[in-house]
Amino acid sequence: MPEPAPPRVFISYSHDSETHADQVLALAERLLAEGVDASIDQYIQSPPEGWPAWCEAEIRKADFVLMVCTETYLRRVNREEEAGKGHGALWEARLIRQYLYDSGSVSSKFVPVLFADGLHDYVPTPVKGGSIYRVQSDEGYEGLYRLLTNQPRVRKGMLGRLRRLPERQRVSLGEPPVGAAAEIPPVPVASLPRPRVEDLFVGRAAERQKLTAVIPADGNGKASAKPKVFISYSWLDEKDKDGNPVVLAHERRSRTPDERAFSLAELLREHGFDSRIDLYFKDAKYGFVPPVVRSRDRRDPWIIWAQEQIAEADSVLLLCTPEYIASDLDHGECPGEWCDWHRMDNVLKAEKRVPSLWWDWHYIAEECDAKPEKFIPVGFGSYSPEEIPAFVRGATYCNLDSRRDFEGLLRRIREEHRRRHPSAASGGAEQPEIQSKTPERLPGLTTHSTTQLHVVILVHGIRDFALWQTTIRSALEEESFKAEATNYGRFNLLQFLVPFSYFRKKAIATVWNQIRIVKQNNEGALLSVVAHSFGTFVIAHLIQENFDIKFHRVIFCGSVVRYGFPFEQFQNRFAQPIVNEVGTRDIWPAMAESITFGYGSAGTYGFRRPLVRDRWHNEAHHGYFLDPLFCKKYWIPFLKNGEVVAGAAAPEPHASGYRSCRL
After folding, report:
1. Are the CB atoms for 454 and 642 separated by under 8 Å?
2. Is the pLDDT of residue 36 over 90?
3. Which backbone phi and psi does 575 adopt, to 5 degrees?
4. Cβ-count burial of 240 within 10 angstroms (0-12 exposed, 13-18 middle, 19+ buried)?
């Protein structure tokens, strides 16, 4: 269970004066000091991606955008500023207008705020209808802080039962009232006759028997058709582009969910289980709602939530990763730091600040002795006791990378559900199991269903009109894939070699916009990519820069990506392995690495590292791979089921002229 993620806030403002900039900085600092992850441009000297891209990323990642409304800000938002001034506020305003347009002009993300001298007339029209906060007053700042942290001043009370009122006694016309009519006492709701299920299904015994088999009832008469599975896992440190942890105010590290846990929960739902994970509740997915503060309970609502989920679940999966076990140096052993805390009384536990994951362990350990079969350690790769908490170390481990283990896990969860709900097993015919095709391995925990649309995106290289995309598209569509071409224009040799980032970033942004369109038009589809030459550079940087990207399969050919590219930092954004086609006579990647900066020679010499599978082809030149016969032989098996058809068993040596390219 994660610690409650701090709300992310981006502050949009105009640089009216030094005094105004100081006021904005003071607001950001106050929010940071009180647990709100506020971001402003003053914290950044010069973003490597450029200010426009930085602004767009900040607005996209933010939970709220505070718009500091002044006369100058309004003038720039309305595009009434003189030429050459206020480009930052103007760009942010365009992005905000686009977000509001996309959401149908209804969004609580954009919040107008005023300083002491601000006027309501300075608030832009698109956000004028919402609450406006004067943040330099105590009341105004508190109202804003309550909004950002989801702490309303008053919470709606519980809905009660309808009160039944007596009817007025009727008097017939022409008849005098006879004395004082006796008041008819109200009939209690509980005493009203209730229809019985048997009465509703008279003569329909066959239908009743089928429904009982599919929706058995537990001991409380509630539906328990689906096994309930809770996933306990650890959030991860968010990393910057250099692979270093992102540090917020007061030395706190920014945390992000482990997408593998979310993928596991989704996969279990595809197999017919009622999987539970914190993100479903945090994002109100599948009808779940975030936990709220409870009276007379000092614990964090998420801690109470975890206790209830663990208690109610038929099975609890412990996603044992290095990060999961790292919260306690003793790995849950006794004596040890977690064990000492676990043995404290509840009052001391609640007062001591500890990783929130320790509460998961606490509730699991409390139940583990009585119900050991309920708790299942799972992970990626072979069993390693160093990555499993001591209190579940004797349980059978499931390797999620193994098809056999995964199918065994599904059977184990179903059996535990039937054992806990015997009436479900004996209520008629055995409950049908929802089947879904499971590949031999589960890279990234994704599955390829025969009914799920699979889109393959094609990205071309330099000095290329990408005519090969047409023939490759036809080969893919013959195998029921949908192919989508991308195009960033003809990238000439000078643009490719110039060691400045302008041309490269422009191509990357163009391809990303086109991929976003493909995603929007094919919602729920699997997305794979085939990239050639400079296109591999584009895709590698999109994987690095976009947290919401997820490729099902990735194929590089003629790659100019450097062999040390940090794929391991972003491995939750693509299914492993990436296939890298290597041509022993492809000189262009080696030349690119030697002549200019930023490129590598993986297309000539391979990556030779984890997460990437190099496939060698003797006598293959730069364009050798762009052939429909090659596509059918090598790419389609990989795109369909992850099969990597073998290339050359013994790669031929590179010519001396090729080796001399690597200066």
Report:
1. no
2. yes
3. -85, 135
4. exposed
Query: Residue 424, Cα to own-chain centre: how many angstroms?
Result: 34
**How does DSSP classify residue 217?**
B
As a whole number of angstroms, the distance between CA 618 and CA 288 comes to 55
Average pLDDT over residues 440-469: 67
- Is pLDDT at 86 greater than 60 in this prediction? no
Cβ burial, residue 482 (10 Å; 0-12/13-18/19+): middle
Residues with Cβ < 8 Å from 189, sequence gap 6 or more?
161, 162, 164
CATH number at 228-426: 3.40.50.10140
pLDDT at res. 15: 86
* Distance set, CA 379 to CA 373, 376, 566, 581 (Å): 17, 10, 22, 30
The three-point CA angle 583-586-587 to 5° equals: 150
pLDDT one-digit tens code per residue, 612-630? 999 999 999 988 999 999 9
Q: What is the pLDDT of residues 360-389, one digit of tens each?
A: 888 888 887 677 788 899 998 887 777 788
**Least confident interval from 100-114, 151-165, 399-413, 621-635:** 100-114
| pLDDT exceeds 70 at position 461 | yes
Q: Which residues, in sequence order, are CB contacts of 101 under 8 Å at separation 6+?
A: none
Per-residue model confidence as pLDDT tens digits over 45-61: 888 888 888 888 888 88
pLDDT-derived band at 217 (thresholds 50, 70, 90) equals very low
What is the spatial distance between Cα 328 and Cα 663, in angstroms, rounded to a whole number? 47
Topology match between the domains 8-148 and 228-426: yes
What's phi and psi for 228, nearest 5 deg? -95, 125
DSSP readout, 155-207?
Answer: ------PPPP-PPPPP--TT----SSPPPPPPPPGGGS----HHHHTTT-HHH
Contact 261, 233 (CB under 8 A): yes
Gap between the Cα atoms of 588 and 248, Å rounded: 42
- Return the amino acid letter for 655: A
Residue 83 has pLDDT above 80, yes or no: no
What angle (nearest 5°) sits at the alpha carbon of residue 262, between those of residues 536 and 240?
Answer: 50
**CATH 3.40.50.2300 fits domain 8-148:** no
pTM (predicted TM-score): 0.38
Spatial distance between the Cα atoms of 554 and 639, rounded to a whole number of angstroms:
9
Q: Where are the domains of the chain?
A: 8-148, 228-426, 448-659
Rounded Cα–Cα distance for residues 537 and 487 (Å): 14
| Structure tokens given for 340 | 């000492």
The residue among 660 and 137 whose pLDDT is bigger is 137
CATH number assigned to the domain with residue range 448-659, chosen from the 4 options 3.30.420.40, 3.40.980.10, 3.40.50.1000, 3.40.50.1820 = 3.40.50.1820
Q: Which two tokens stand for residue 190?
A: 């509980």
